[in-house]
Amino acid sequence: MLLVLGDSNPTHHIRRPWVNWGLIAFCIVLFFVNPSYRDYGLTPAELHLVALAPAQVDVGSVLFTLVSYNFLHASLLHLGGNMLVLWVFGDNIEDAMGHLRYLLFFVLAGVAGGLAEALLGASPGVPVVGASGAIAGVMGAYLLLHPRARVLVLLAFRLPIVIPASLFVGLHVGFDLLAVLLPADDPEMLVAFWAHLGGFTAGLGLLVLLKCPDVPLFQPASRYPDQPFGRWGRYMIDLGHARDAGVGPVPMTRRVAFAVKSLSYLLIIWVLVEMFLV
After folding, report:
1. Nearest-CA neighbor of 108 among 82, 75, 72, 136?
2. What's the pLDDT tens digit per position in 202-249?
3. What does the alpha-carbon distance between residue 10 and residue 87 come to, in Å, rounded to a whole number?
4. What are phi and psi of 155, to 5 degrees?
5. What is the domain count for the chain?
6. Residue 159 phi/psi, 5° resolution?
7. Which range of residues forms the domain containing residue 86?
8. Of 208, 219, 181, the residue nearest 197 (C-alpha)
9. What percent of the chain has pLDDT above 90?
10. How far apart are CA 113 and CA 133, in angstroms?
11. Residue 146 sits in a domain of what CATH number?
12. Could you report the per-residue pLDDT of 7-20, keeping only the tens digit for each?
């Protein structure tokens, strides 16, 4: 399990990611207001009726849930995990598109995720809530723009390491693909994995359409700080090396230092967790 904590990717076109901050704030406020999932969550079965028997449902209300479901969350953990990912990745996508186009991107990626879940999900009667589909779109866009940016994650909620963004996003997408191929063991623990995959796919295409013309895809490692996360970066296990920037092979001294640092971290985590917390 990887929990993302931050990235080392500054913005260049905007001063502040106002839209991204606004989306996060709106989701948090709605969580505590606690609107009805039945009224504002996306129920795929009702969306099916829009296509098959529109006279039996309020078409406008059902279509509205394709947007409203993105801003509702089932638990504090659900909310916190989604907002943390959006905080880390969303500002750079807003930077690549501008404020208004980023808002449109977020909504459309969420709609695409909802449609994918309605078409392919196995539980059409269960309301779907959460910004995961839209956020998967954000991660898809980030993958096309900044695959070599480095992100700080907690491995198994214990070990802080720095990895390429492409690895983090790729693992998430791979897990979603695996999940849709396996049957759910516990019907009470349903996750809208098709919404994730639909949003991710939409994010890839929408980025190309909505990004600013001067923003290139697949930006090189040289664009990002060589020492991520400031002075604290020296104490982290960093799996992204200078070779990604095209400056030649990593010196043997740096390889040894990396191995020593990694083993030291593993030992410290083992002592703290296994001896004191277990």
Report:
1. 136
2. 999 999 999 999 999 999 988 887 767 766 666 667 776 544 444 455
3. 13
4. -80, 120
5. 1
6. -105, 115
7. 2-228
8. 181
9. 56
10. 5
11. 1.20.1540.10
12. 989 999 999 999 99
